[in-house]
Each structure stands twice: as C-alpha cells, then as structure tokens.
Amino acid sequence: MVITGGSRGIGQAVAEAFYKAGDNVTILDREVASERGPGTGERYMTVQADVTSSADVDRAFEVAEERFGPVEVLVANAGVVRDKLIIRMSDEDFAATRDVNLTGSFYCVRRAAKSMVRRKSGAVILLGSVVASIGGSGQANYSASKAALVGLARSVARELGPRGITANVIAPGFIQTDMTAALPEAVREQYLSQIPAGRFGTVEDVAGAALFLAGARYVSGAILPVDGALGMGH
Ligand code: NDP
C-alpha cells in the first residue's frame, strides 16, 4: 500500500495498521528526515514527495513499484488547513489548501490507477472530512477541497469499478492529532459538546476504517463517517 503524509497523525496510524496486517507500506512525505516508520525496514519505506508536484508523485510511485510491485491500496491522507474567515481568506490560503488536499490527491489517484488497472484490483481511499458535508466556519477553503474529493472518488468508482477497483472517502470528525491540537480550547470544547459519542476520535479509529475499506470489495463510491455521529451519517 501507498500512503501520503504517513509520518504523523492519522497517516502514521494507518501505515502502522496496514504494516501490522502484513502489507508492504510506502509512505510519501515531504521530508524523509521526519521518517518514523511503522516497523523495522523490511516491508516499509518512506519516499520524499510533495503531493502538489505530479513529478514527485510519479517518481515516488515508481520507487514503490520497483521495491514492492504494483500498488493495490492507496490512502491519500496528506492534508493541510489554513482556517480564516472568508472575508480575510487570501487567494494563497485557498490555493494552498486546494493544491494539497484536492490536486495532490488527484495526482496520487491518477498514478495509482495505472498500477491497479494492471492488477485488475485496487482500493482508493481518500481522507475527506465531516465539514465537507456540514460546513465549517472559517473553513471555506478546507471544506470545499474535501467536498471535491467525494466527486473524485465517485468518478473513480464509476470509471474503474469494472476493473475491480473501489474508491471511497473516509470522513473523520474531530480526531486528536497535531492538526486539531492547534485549535483554540474554546473551539475544541464547542466541537466536543456536539459529538454524540462524547469524545474526540483517535487515529486508531480512522485506521480501522481504512483497513475495512481496503478489504471491502463491494463497498465503493461511499462516504464512511468516522466522527462519533457529529455529522449524523452525512
Ligand atoms: P497532520 O497535520 O497531523 O498530518 C498531515 C500530514 O500530511 C503530515 O504528515 C504532513 O507532512 C503531510 N503533508 C502535508 N502537506 C503535504 C504535501 N504537500 N506533500 C506530502 N505530504 C504532506 O494531519 P492529520 O493526521 O490530522 O490529518 C490527516 C488527514 O485527515 C488530512 O487530510 C486531514 O485533512 C484529514 N482530517 C483530519 C481530521 C482531524 O480531526 N485530525 C478531521 C477530518 C479530516 P509534514 O509532516 O511534512 O507536514
């Protein structure tokens, strides 16, 4: 499997889960120096790639395929936030978020599809967000980029379904990582009060969903919420 942004947070937990399940794991990250792999080297590696560069992505997939063979599972996890109220949101804030979250995912899906079509099987898993469905104040750029992933996944499900390839979106709610640790305490408390499960999610909650989708061969074009019912199924 190939995962982007796997050196920390949700990506790291997903990489570990697949590694423990016996998969070969290639992590694509901006910095190889930040490598904190899921195991002891035999079945995983980190390859430097900024997902906003299609050349980086293509080269990294070549490295992955050379070592581990055709890619069967892609988890497009790399993502960024640049929260601002819309009247203060710059062109750059919008473009930077779109470039990583949407365009970067597209580059990875396009390249992974080549491997998967050859294998006649594959699972594409995109990291969306609950705010794609319920909106997020100060998150116009982020919510829009995550909502677009639904259209991407569903188009892949339609186009490549006949080739044995599934494509789904995981929509996490509030998961405890660096990304959410950066939020002000008041915002965290407000989210918590709205989560029926009464707790924030863990990275392992999301990793379990990714493992499930990789193996669920008749689940495609779906959005799988991992949000303690924050979005009530949306
Ligand atoms: P983190 O901020 O903890 O980690 C993000 C990862 O993405 C890092 O490894 C980062 O690398 C990598 N990354 C960022 N930009 C690039 C890039 N241009 N090229 C390659 N890698 C890049 O995020 P989370 O673990 O919290 O989130 C993971 C995914 O889940 C994201 O897509 C996020 O939007 C989504 N999500 C998270 C939620 C949450 O509550 N945490 C809720 C809903 C969705 P580096 O270390 O170099 O910065």
Question: Can you offer a commentary on this structure?
Answer:
With 234 residues, this protein is of the alpha/beta class. The chain has a single domain, classed as 3-Layer(aba) Sandwich (Rossmann fold). 46% of the residues lie in helices and 15% in strands. The protein is built from eight helices and seven strands; from the N terminus they run E-H-E-E-H-E-H-E-H-H-E-H-H-H-E. A seven-stranded parallel beta sheet has the order 3-2-1-4-5-6-7, sandwiched between helices. Strand 1, helix 1 and strand 2 form a beta-alpha-beta unit. The relative contact order is 0.14. The mean pLDDT is 95.
Keywords summarizing the entry:
Rossmann fold, 234 residues, binds NADPH dihydro-nicotinamide-adenine-dinucleotide phosphate, alpha/beta
Structure summarized in a few sentences:
With about 230 residues, the chain is α/β, with parallel strands linked by helices. The protein has helices at about 10-20, 55-70, 90-120, 130-135, 140-160, 180, 185-195, 205-215, and strands at about 1-5, 25-30, 45-50, 75, 120-125, 165-170, 225. The chain has one domain (about 1-225): 3-Layer(aba) Sandwich (Rossmann fold), CATH 3.40.50.
